[in-house]
Amino acid sequence: MTQAVARIGRPRRLAIDLPAVVNLVGMLGKYLGLAALFPIPFAIGYGEPFLPFLVAGVVTSGLGFALERLTADAAGRVSVREGFLVVALTWLLAAAFASIPYLFEGGDQFSSPLDAYFEGMSGFTTTGASVVTDYDEINRSLGIWRQFTQWLGGMGIIVLAIAVLPRLRVGGRQLMESELPGPEIAALGERIRSTARKLWVLYGALTLIQTGLLTSLWVTGIDDQMTPYEALAHAFSTMPTGGFSTQPESAAAFSAESQWILILFMAIAGANFALMYRAFVHRQPRVLARDEEFRLYATFAIGASAALAAMLWGYGILEGEGAVRTATFQAVSIMTTTGMASADFALWPPLLLLTLFALMFIGGSAGSTGGSIKVVRHLLLGKVLRREIDQTLSPEVMMPIRLNGAPVDERTIRAIAAFVLLYIGFWAVGASVIAIDSAISGVGAGTLDSLAMSATTLGNVGPAFGLAGPYGSFAEFGDVSKLTMIGLMWVGRLEILPVVVLLTRHYWRL
After folding, report:
1. Residue-wise over 183-197: b if at least 16 C-beta within 10 A, else e?
2. Residue 10: phi, psi to the nearest 5?
3. Rounded alpha-carbon distances, angstroms, from residue 114 to 29, 102, 105, 184, 325
4. Which of 22, 170, 181, 491 could, after both became Cys, cross-link 367 (CB 3.0–4.6 A)?
């Protein structure tokens, strides 16, 4: 009783070190601004203005430097609790940074700061949802910036977990457990920064290989549209499972050969990068067949492709190789949350749309650049369901959940269940807000359209249906809907739980 009274009488204090958070966010912003140097050679080479990128870099790096200097005394004081806020604020800063060149050089379609921020958030979160309505207004340097922001964001969550956060005395491997990457992360090595470097090298190497393969189609005359510029731009979109394209028709503007290469690299990008490292670099391809998550990932992709191909053929929309290629492209693109399109699937019959809608909730593998729920969570929830059924018949039998032969901690199972419940909750609330705002503003989005827009932004997928389809744009929707979708993109990229933690009183007060 005395302790309770003392606790009530004691003044509550802030539980986090805000100056330390500001110091680290400032440091990250200082270095993030250097990314604006990348499109400047393109601007100079094509005779386009480079001032927008210079301003973006100077503003972001300058602000970051100022924040870091003003809070220099707090450097190094960040702990686990502050890490959540650092990650959340860094992503908000990154989206603002990406939006600056759009405001300067994007024309009338980016005259609204909200639209520019929407595009910036969509790029860095690798969502690929766009407010662009006129691709001719986007010059080459701004176009490559738009693609490059996706590429930076693609490995962003891995970088924050295993490269940045160890400096905050937060174990990168422990944070990665929230994504359930599997035992392959640990197998890469004990040093987290060494692991981060290996994954970045693989990520960069795959991007260069894809660029080379796509460029070779232009060199050999197989695809005259796939110039070196387009090859690099679409590699920047594929490997991070981003989805932005330089063309209003997305991948449909390119040849069948280009589309098959895009399919291959979308599938690779949606797999566990640590597993890919072992398979490609350590030359252990058999680990793919032994990994339970990868087997389910491949089963989902192949099964969905076959189902869509059969429906396209059956409805008489496409047949032969075209049906197989289009079905495979859309199944892999939506499931891995890449979101590129080889056809205007918004015009397809409802049964095909419902299939694509379901794929939005699968996602890539954990430890990939893909978003959404992720395959390993589906796998483990399936094992939990099977255990519950088995224990109904034999309640006295102990049945631990195993992944690739290793037991999974029950706390992890509870975390997965909590994540899925929160995911469905955010999706439902987001869809309701979008539907109500669309009705008030007279946009005319149907129920399935609103459900799909919420799912595609929360899962970082990209296109939806109706006006927001693969050949459409999100520009027509109201400010409330856009703000909601920006929030969903941010929450989805941060895997929900870190954001939910920030919304609790316990996080802020002791």
Report:
1. ebbeebeeebeebbe
2. -75, 130
3. 21, 11, 15, 40, 37
4. 181
Question: Two tokens at 114?
Answer: 């909200």
Phi and psi at residue 59, to the nearest 5° = -65, -50
* Residue 345 parent element (H or E): none
Q: 97: part of which helix (H) or strand (E)?
A: helix 80-105
72-76, 102-106, 338-342, 466-470, range with the lowest pLDDT: 72-76
Average pLDDT over residues 428-436: 96
User: What region, left, alpha or beta, does residue 316 occupy, with left being phi > 0 and alpha being psi -120 to 50 degrees?
Assistant: left
Half-sphere exposure of 251 (CA within 13 A, CB side): 29
Model confidence at 81, pLDDT cuts 50, 70, 90, reads confident
What's the N-to-C CA distance of the chain in angstroms? 19
Residue 175: pLDDT over 80:
no
CB-based contact 359:351 (threshold 8 Å): no
* pLDDT bracket for residue 507 (50, 70, 90): confident
Q: Which residues pair with 14 in a beta bridge?
A: 509
| One-character DSSP codes across 192-250 | HHHHHHHHHHHHHHHHHHHHHHHHHHHHTTS-TT--HHHHHHHHHHHTTT----SSTTG
Residue reference for tokens 């040093």: 191
Question: Exposed/middle/buried for 388, CB within 10 Å: 0-12, 13-18, 19+?
Answer: exposed
